[in-house]
Each structure stands twice: as C-alpha cells, then as structure tokens.
Specification:
The protein is mainly β. It has a domain at 43-137: Rieske [2Fe-2S] iron-sulphur domain (Rieske Iron-sulfur Protein, 3-layer Sandwich), CATH 2.102.10.10. It has one helix at 2-12; strands spanning 31-35, 50-53, 60-64, 70-74, 88-89, 95-97, 104-106, 112-114, 123-129, 132-136. The strands form two sheets. It has a six-stranded antiparallel β-sheet with strand order 1-10-9-4-3-2, with no helix packed on it. A hairpin with a 6-residue loop joins β2 (50-53) and β3 (60-64).
C-alpha cells in the first residue's frame, strides 16, 4: 500500500505545476498582413491613431506610434485570464481598460497603469514595409 502511495505521489507531482502562469493569455498563432493603402486601414496612416482588428486571443489593437513604429497588443485582459475579458480603448486614446477588473494599460507599450493586474498586455512583433504591416508572434 505504501509503495502505491509513493508511486502515485511521484506520478501526480508534475500535474501540480501545470497551471497557467498568471497574466499569460492562451497562445494563438498570429500572422496578419494589413495593407495601409486600403480604405479600411486609412486611420493608421497617421501617428497617434489606432484600430481594432481581428486576430490574437480576443482581437488586436493596432497603434501607430511613429511614422515607422507600430504597437500591436492583444485585447485579452491579463488580470483574470480565464474570464476572457476584452479590453477597450478609453476616450483619451492612450489608455486601455479591462471592463471586468478596471485594470488599465498604456497603448504605447501595454505596460500597467493601475488595477489589480500584475501583467502587461500581450504584445506582438511588427514589420513595416510600406504599405504593408506584418503582425506576428
């Protein structure tokens, strides 16, 4: 009997470490090209503008930081990942908010402003070869 308990405890030990890391959203492959010459993306031709697009875990926020730099963040809130809350941009245009927890992040890089979250928003890699922006993870 004792031998069986030891075997079971050894076999089940790795399962205790399999929980999701707090603040880490589910992995979804992202490989998106957007052509800024198309009317749907016209607002992204000017620094300081942003747009919601499909992709990622809960959608993406594409922000044109400078003429040559873009920031793309996943809209999946990092406070209670399992709740699956979708972040939105506030009227000030640079604050992203989780409507479930009240957590807030900067659009410039996804870093935390305030709230109970302990993790930044997921940021994706961008490649800019005008007029096409490629977004990948």
């Amino acid at each position: 009997m004792r031998r069986l308990l030891i075997i079971l405890s050894i076999a089940l030990t790795p399962l205790s470490g399999c929980r999701d890391t707090p603040g880490v959203i589910p992995y979804v492959a992202v490989d998106v090209d957007i052509n800024l010459a198309l009317p749907a993306y016209n607002s992204l031709n000017f620094p300081g503008n942003w747009l919601y697009i499909s992709g990622g875990s809960r959608g993406l926020i594409v922000y044109r930081y400078t003429l040559d730099e873009f920031v793309v963040l996943d809209r999946h809130a990092t406070h209670d990942v399992d709740a699956g809350c979708q972040c939105t941009i506030l009227q000030d245009g640079y604050t992203i908010e989780d409507p479930c927890s009240g957590s807030q992040w900067y659009i410039f890089d996804g870093s935390i402003i305030q709230g109970p979250t302990t993790a930044p928003l997921e940021r994706y890699t961008t490649t800019w070869i005008a007029p096409v922006l490629t977004i990948q993870n």
